[in-house]
Write a sequence for this structure.
């Protein structure tokens, strides 16, 4: 098989003057033409770079306290460029905390979504491919999970395990990842299952089977790659929902444990001084809004690019 | 139809049982008992702890505690020797460990004072806010979606599409920050902190923030389906018959665009209910959502458990209602 592959490619290229564009090239071209999606990608990249370079970019470290400058105003009030967005209730530089907090938001956007992908993907594939009783049981479980909003479960789980050993790992991030991922897989599982069910009956799968391909090979070579497009779209929309989850949980005092800065717990900290120093809550709120909008533009763009039929 | 309704109602049972069980197990998994420390922060004497544990059946095995909680096992024997059931099935959501002597049901449903009406209870306040949010969602979302579809590819369409994308992606409690700063702090149109929730002013921002996400969602959906529907042959027929364009739009197009909207209303309603946790906290709203969040903060596990069961029941009910509305809107659907 490895020896035959290059030969086949040569034959295919010889038959046409230009190589055929794959779905992915096509989608990439469409995505690049979508102005909003490009703005979205650009914003995400900028935030990601800032987050990675936080130690270099941030003027102060995350938890440096300036006791003589508690609730110090932003630069447009004080004219002092040392603390551009002012300081919070314990004298920590707001801008620096925002920059460090970007790390949390991005990590929380990606990790739970990846866990969901693995969980939901595997369950969906198993369910769709095996069918029968396994499918029935797995899908009934998914139905139950689907009937209840993920955030309610996430709150309960975060509350229950917050004071355990598990809840204290990585500044509460481990618990946050699990509670956001454990109750968010069912949508993806349903999606993958549906795809697998319909792909299973297609001629090319039958052809592969007739050629003697093993079930595992059919699954990973022929079916899974074809489910990718809708899965990617669903993942792209999963990222903002995970970021909202972190912001919400941290806002109500679950989620990321202080003193680790996250945009969510900065909202919580800023709420008490919203009328005396609104910058402290407006700044993280603006950051959350911008990153969510960027991911939504990206998601919309990906959906239009990968599934042209959806476009109006 | 009746068979479908019954099956749909029966389906709620496993959902509720699972949620109650999962929540119960998680609350049991938390370290420390509820009476390790008294509300004043001191450690309670051993015998007091034991007495409290016995009173709340916490000395029983876990499975029995669960059955007692659900109301399937007698909590105690009455004076005449007959078993007394006191659990979720009987409408008792359990005791609160923090508010001494009050049950969760009482905390949620009782008005703040004896002579106050029921809608001033935590549940009543939250329900009122939810209804207002729902109205905001429909009243802003529908016209915006229709307008965008009718004026397809004009600036109106682009503005409404952009706005709805912004509002669909921004959660209400983040939006609330900006609205509070603008309307309460800068313009001073609305009160900074609500002294009383019996006047209309403090309700404006919370209801808007709760409903605006739903409205953006509805606007996007109505626009998409309207565009689809407007291309159908029966719209052309209606136009060709010489019907006024309003009639065509409202009676022919809108009615059919409502069907997909109805399908997503279930999750949307659930979003409204859970969204209230954060909105209520943001505005210090005296409702069930903020009480839940406070209970989480105080580790009042019985209140967390009881409220979760109630929330789960509400959401299951909302989903059922939506399914029925769906059937009523689309006569092509018959349930078997």
């Amino acid at each position: 098989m490895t020896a035959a592959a290059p030969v086949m490619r040569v034959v295919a290229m010889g038959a046409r003057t230009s190589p055929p564009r794959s779905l992915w090239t096509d989608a990439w071209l469409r995505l690049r033409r979508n102005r909003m999606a490009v703005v979205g990608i650009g914003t995400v990249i900028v935030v990601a770079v800032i987050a990675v370079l936080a130690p270099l970019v941030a003027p102060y470290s995350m938890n440096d306290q300036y006791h003589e400058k508690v609730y110090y105003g932003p630069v447009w009030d004080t004219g002092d460029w040392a603390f551009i967005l002012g300081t919070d209730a314990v004298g920590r530089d707001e801008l620096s905390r925002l920059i460090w907090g970007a790390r949390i938001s991005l990590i929380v956007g990606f990790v739970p979504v990846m866990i969901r992908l693995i969980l939901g993907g595997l369950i969906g594939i198993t369910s769709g491919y095996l069918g029968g009783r396994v499918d029935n049981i797995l899908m009934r479980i998914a139905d139950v999970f689907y009937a209840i909003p993920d955030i309610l479960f996430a709150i309960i789980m975060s509350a229950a395990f917050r004071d355990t050993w598990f809840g204290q790992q990585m500044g509460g991030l481990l618990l946050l990842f699990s509670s956001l991922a454990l109750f968010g897989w069912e949508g993806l599982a349903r999606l993958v299952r549906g795809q697998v069910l319909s792909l299973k009956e297609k001629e090319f799968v039958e052809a592969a089977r007739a050629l003697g391909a093993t079930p595992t090979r059919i699954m990973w070579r022929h079916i899974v790659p074809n489910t990718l497009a809708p899965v990617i779209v669903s993942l792209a929309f999963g990222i903002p929902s995970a970021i909202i989850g972190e912001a919400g949980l941290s806002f109500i005092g679950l989620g990321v444990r202080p003193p680790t800065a996250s945009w969510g717990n900065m909202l919580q900290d800023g709420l008490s001084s919203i009328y005396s120093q609104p910058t402290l809550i407006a700044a993280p709120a603006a950051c959350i809004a911008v990153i969510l909008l960027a991911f939504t533009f990206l998601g919309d763009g990906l959906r239009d690019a990968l599934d042209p039929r959806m476009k109006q | 139809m009746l068979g479908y309704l019954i099956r749909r109602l029966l389906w709620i049972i496993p959902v509720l049982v699972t949620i109650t069980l999962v929540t119960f197990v998680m609350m049991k998994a938390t370290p420390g008992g509820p009476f390790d420390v008294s509300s004043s922060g001191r450690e309670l004497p051993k015998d007091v702890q034991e007495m409290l544990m016995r009173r709340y059946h916490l000395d029983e095995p876990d499975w029995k505690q669960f059955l007692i909680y659900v109301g399937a096992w007698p909590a105690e024997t009455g004076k005449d020797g007959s078993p007394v059931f006191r659990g979720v099935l009987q409408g008792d959501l359990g005791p609160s460990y923090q508010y001494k002597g009050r049950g969760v049901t009482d905390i949620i449903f009782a008005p703040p004072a004896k002579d106050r009406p029921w809608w001033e209870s935590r549940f009543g306040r939250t329900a009122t806010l939810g209804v207002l949010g729902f109205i905001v969602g429909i009243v802003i979302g529908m016209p915006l979606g229709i307008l965008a579809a009718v004026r397809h590819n004009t600036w109106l369409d682009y503005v409404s599409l952009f706005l709805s994308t912004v509002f669909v992606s921004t959660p209400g409690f983040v939006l609330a920050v900006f609205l509070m700063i603008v309307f309460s702090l800068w313009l001073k149109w609305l009160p900074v902190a609500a002294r009383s929730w019996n006047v209309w002013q403090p309700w404006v921002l919370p209801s808007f923030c709760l409903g605006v996400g739903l409205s953006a969602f509805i606007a996007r959906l109505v626009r998409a389906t309207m565009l689809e529907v407007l291309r159908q042959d029966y719209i052309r027929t209606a136009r060709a018959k010489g019907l006024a364009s309003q009639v065509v739009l409202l009676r022919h197009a809108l009615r059919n665009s409502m069907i997909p909207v109805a399908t997503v209303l279930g999750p949307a309603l659930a979003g409204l209910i859970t969204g209230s946790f954060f909105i209520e906290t943001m505005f210090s709203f005296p409702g069930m959502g903020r009480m839940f969040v406070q209970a989480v903060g105080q580790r009042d596990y019985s209140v967390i458990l009881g409220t979760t069961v109630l929330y789960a029941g509400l959401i299951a009910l909302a989903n059922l209602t939506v399914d029925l509305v769906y059937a009523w809107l689309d006569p092509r659907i018959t349930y078997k």
Summary: Chain A is about 70% helix and 0% strand. The interface with chain B takes residues 140, 143-144, 147-149, 151-153, 155-157, 159-161, 163-164, 240, 244, 247-248, 251-254, 267, 271, 274-275, 278, 281-282, 285-286, 288-289, 292-293, 295-297, 300, 312 of chain A (CB under 8 Å). The CA atoms of residues 124 and 192 of chain A lie 5 Å apart. Confidence is low (pLDDT under 50) at residues 1-14 of chain A.
